[in-house]
Amino acid sequence: MIDSQQSQVLIAARDISKDFAERKVLQNVSLELTPGKAVTLIGPNGAGKTTLVRILLGLLQPDAGRIERRSDLRIGYMPQRLALQATLPLTVDRFLKLANKRQGSSIAATLQLLNIEHLAAQQMISISGGELQRVLLARALLQEPQLLVLDEPAQGVDLNGQAELYQLIGRIRAERGCAVLMISHDLQLVMSTTDEVICLNHHVCCHGEPEQVSTDPAFLDLFGPNLSPGLALYTHHHNHEHDIAGEVKPPES
Asked: Which domains does the chain have, with CATH numbers?
C-alpha cells in the first residue's frame, strides 16, 4: 500500500508480467498515476491492455511484479461493453441505483452533467451505443473516483460522438482533479489532452507525450477537416521490431 500522507502516487504497476497458457501477455510493464494525470494505453488487439487494467483493479493477479495503491483509493471503472439480456426490464435509473446505491439526487446530477437526464426512465436495452457509453461513464462517476479507468470508452460511438465524449472526459478530469487511465485499441487515435501515451504490445514499446498534429495532411485525410480538435495523432517510434507473435525480434548482427 502507498502512504497517502507521504506520496502523491495513487496507483503504480512495478514490472508486471502475466502469462496465459504459456503465452506471455505482459512483460515487465510499469506505469504510475498521480492526481490529475491522464494516461492512455494504445496498442493492437491482444497486446495486453485490458489484462493490465484488470491487474490494476485487483481482478487478476500478476505472475511477477507488484501493484502499489493508496489504501483509500476510490476507482471508477467504465468497462468496454455490457452484456444485458434483451428480456430484462431495467431502466437507466434503476441500473445506476443497483450499481452504486446512491441517492437519487446524485444520480440526477450526474445524468445532467453528461446530458443524458432524459434517459433516466428508458430501458437499458433500448438506448443507443453512444447513450450506453455515457450511462456507463455515469456509473463510474457515481463512485466519486480519484482514479477513472476507461476501457475503450468510445466503443460503438461514431467519430463525431467520439470527439465529444473525449472532450467531456477531459472536462471532468479538469474539474474534479481525478487521474484518468484510458485504453484505446487504435494506435493512431488518442486524446490531445492526454499527458502520457503508453504503447503496449505485451511490453512497453514506447511512451511519452502525444504529438500535436491536428494540421497534418494525414490526420485531416483520416479524420476529416471538420472534426472538432479533441483528437491527435501519436507518432509511433520504435527502436525494435516485433515478430508475428508480438515478441521483440533480436537485433541483426
From this structure: 1-74+145-239 (3.40.50.300), 84-143 (no CATH)
